[in-house]
Amino acid sequence: MAANKDMFLWWGSGSPPCWKPMLVLAEKEMWESLPNKLISFDKKENKEADILAANPRGQVPTFKDGSLVVNESNAICMYLEEKYSNDSNRLLPVDVEERSQVYWRMFESGNIQSNITVPIVYSIWNTKPEDRNQAELDEKFTKAKEELGYWERTLTGRSYLVGDRFTMADVFFYPFLAFLVRLGATLREFPALKQYYDLISQRPTVQATWPPHWKEGSTAPILAAL
After folding, report:
1. pLDDT digits (tens, 9 = 90+) for 143-156
2. For residue 1, pLDDT beyond 80
3. What is residue 18's three-state secondary structure?
4. If you count Cβ atoms within 10 Å of the first and of the last residue's Cβ in the chain, which end, N or C, has fewer?
């Protein structure tokens, strides 16, 4: 399915919220033909006029489908799924009970952000080394391991979060996990998570949407303890 020429996506490299709708578009074979713009966060291009006209918050992803504007990554994913799904690219099961399990994991995946990314990653990025409280940071890493342990138990014996195929649950969860690995998480204590990460990372749609700047080199392994 080719993308509508009136579609447009503004996105940022390495942003899990941006990656989610990109994955949905790729799964529906729309990504390669989609008009889009990669913006630079460093240059604050998300605050430029074209984005602000569509999204007054100046955030990405920002998506247009003709005259329709859809903002917020989860909303974009759901819109694309509801409008452009068919039997070969469906990411939400038809069965209501199975779909409920996908919804559960979709919305639960935000705990990675709230329990690991925000308290650890953003804290390290925004605090000078000499101002960091190591005891507090150690406690945050302990809680982060508890969060990863939960997902380890969830994925033990499974290839995907729900059922036997890639679903919207994986779309929502994988970018958060990949972001942790990018920042040095080895997942050495979490073999099921590592196996899951390796499997999904090789998916063609993931490779097609892989953050461009991640291909250019590594970054400081601030999450090596994970």
Report:
1. 999 999 999 999 99
2. no
3. helix
4. N
Asked whether the predicted pLDDT for residue 2 surpasses 90, the reply is no
Question: Over the range 197-215, which residues count as b (16 or more CB within 10 Å of their CB) and which as e?
Answer: beebeebebbeebbbeeee
Kindly report the number of other CB atoms within 10 A of residue 177's CB atom: 25
pLDDT at 64 over 90: yes
Q: In this structure, what are the phi and psi dihedrals at residue 37, rounded to the nearest 5 degrees?
A: -140, 120
Alpha-carbon distance of 202 to 48, in angstroms, equals 35
pLDDT tens-digit profile of 87-123? 999 999 999 999 999 999 999 999 999 999 999 999 9
Domain boundaries, the chain: 7-84, 96-216
DSSP state, 40? P
Provide the pLDDT for residue 130: 87
Give pLDDT, residue 218: 85
How many whole angstroms separate alpha carbon 61 and alpha carbon 63? 6
pTM: 0.95
In sign, the C-alpha dihedral spanning 43, 44, 46, 52 is negative
Q: Show the tokens assigned to 29.
A: 């074979």
Count Cβ atoms within 10 A of the Cβ of residue 28 and give its class: 0-12 exposed, 13-18 middle, 19 or more buried.
buried
User: In CATH terms, is domain 96-216 a member of 3.40.50.1370?
Assistant: no
Q: What is the chain's percent helix, strand, coil content, to nearest 5?
A: 55, 10, 35
Please state which CATH number belongs to domain 7-84: 3.40.30.10
